Amino acid sequence: MKFKSLFHLSLAIVTLLLSSTPGTAKPIRVAIPGYNITQIAFFIARERGFFKEEGLDVELVQMTGTVANLALMTGEVPFTSVPTAAMTANLRGANLRVLFTTFERPLFWLYGRPQIREVRDLKNKKVGVGGLNQASYTLLRELLSNYGLEPNKDYTLIQAGDSAPRFMALTSGFIDATLMPLPWNFSAQEAGMHELVALSKADVTAPTGSIVLRDDLLRSEPQMVEQFTRATLKALRYAIERRAGAIGALTQSLKIKEDLAAKGYDAARPALTADGTMTEASQRKALEAVLKSAGIKDTPPLDRFFNFAVAKKVAADLQTTGWKP
Fold this sequence. Notes:
Order of helices and strands: HEHHEHEHEEEHEHEHEEHHHHHH
CATH architecture of the largest domain: 3-Layer(aba) Sandwich
Strand content: 15-25%
Number of helices: 14
CATH superfamily of the largest domain: Periplasmic binding protein-like II
Number of strands: 10
CATH topology of the largest domain: D-Maltodextrin-Binding Protein, domain 2
CATH class of the largest domain: Alpha Beta
Helix content: 40-55%
Distance between the termini: 58 Å
Largest sheet: 5 strands, mixed
Low-confidence stretches: 1-22
């Protein structure tokens, strides 16, 4: 009897030791807005094993921006990838930080009817949006404002639904122009619509595919934060330098054909950041867009929204060790 008890006790100790072995991967849940190309760094980090190299077992969970913020603030997830929602929440008292971003410019393309050859031709025309509370609406207003066009004065805004109904509204002539995300920009092009502006190359700032976390997590779990950031930065550098591998990761993660993944990669490539960070000028532009959308005139300090210290440290470490994708 004593032997049996001793055996069970020994077995329990061995099991406990094995479960806490340093090599055991730490489970991490990351809230993402959807399975699309903006999450390319996370896809590559998972497919190429960069997360596993850091001892992390990462699960990507799809959530809306509002739900993702709630999950982040309640500790249900340590990271989200939706910076605009986090920045908006900060204006209401949340304590969230953007510490890395895959893309600095938005992945939208402004398409117009064939006879509309430039943005200024949209004066007195109908421009379609998905909704007045969507990020794409804010981007559209900012873009057209740069060309001297203001809503309800120089053009009429039409709420035309999501991408598919907006595409139908554009090709049928119900609206004269609209912003199209991937891959609907290719559909618009094939339908004979005219590309007016590629926001991926324009002077418009909107970070996506970011790492967002609670500020207190930086202090309570700095090692885990650094591990996650290092894996993501490795994936970003891989995306920049290894086109074929990046396309393969998109094909696998998004369950799409290779030719569509290649077209999407080439279209999005100009919007990638070099190292996951943003200049102060870019941070300010991104914040100004959020403030304008919220109707706030006073500008809070940037460090209330951004903290790229970890990303810069990780980049310096990779440079020192000579890491190559």
